[in-house]
Amino acid sequence: MLYSIDMRDVKSxxxxxRAEQAAVTTRRILDAARRGFADVGYxxxxxxxxxSEAGVAVQTVYAVFGSKANILRALRGSVVTDPAASEAYxxxxxxxxxxEALGAFARSIRLRWEAGHDIVMIHASAAAADPDIxxxxxxxxxxxxxxIARLAKxxxxxxxxxxxxxxxxxxxxxTLTSVxxxxxxxxxxxxxDYESWLVAALRRDIRDSTVRSRAxxxxxxxxxxxxxxxxxxxxxGGESGR
Length: 242
Hints:
- By secondary structure, the chain is mostly helical.
- The protein contains 11 helices and no strands.
- Helix 4 runs antiparallel to helix 6.
- It is elongated.
């Protein structure tokens, strides 16, 4: 149903306009804070400077967010709850093929860092100045680790011969924000370049993990049968028999 004749939930034009203006003001404050935090650091950026950059009164910033930490939390929320990235991650978990799962996961990481890699880096510097932010960053890191562990488990279900611990380590290391930052911001890669590299690296290294797992299993094999005199009681305790 595209519309309804029931008008009880329809906002008045004045109310709708106020909501739109409030959303624009909020966006301007967030964008101004994001620029300030990235340029001079979280600790050095004041609410007055954010207000000036956003073109609003400092009282407006207080009214909308209450504190600088709340502005940072709102920025973090935009990264954590990014719908497109979350949808791609869900697709990775739902995949029935390893290649498909890794492709969807690479896509989710690209989307998340493309939208907010700078916000993640800002949090790293803010954590050094604010113990509360530090605790929140630790919680966010734990959430990321949990997501990686869930995907590693799913990949192990798709291919039981994978080395689970190695896979989890690769998923973690290859998708660090600092890697995206280095390749895209420092070396001029496009987000498409990053995604192509990431999916190729994940597929190559995780396939290599399968090969290593098989090689280890072959090398371990059954223990050779000992030939010669039986060991003494001392030998069983770790000393050589005589």
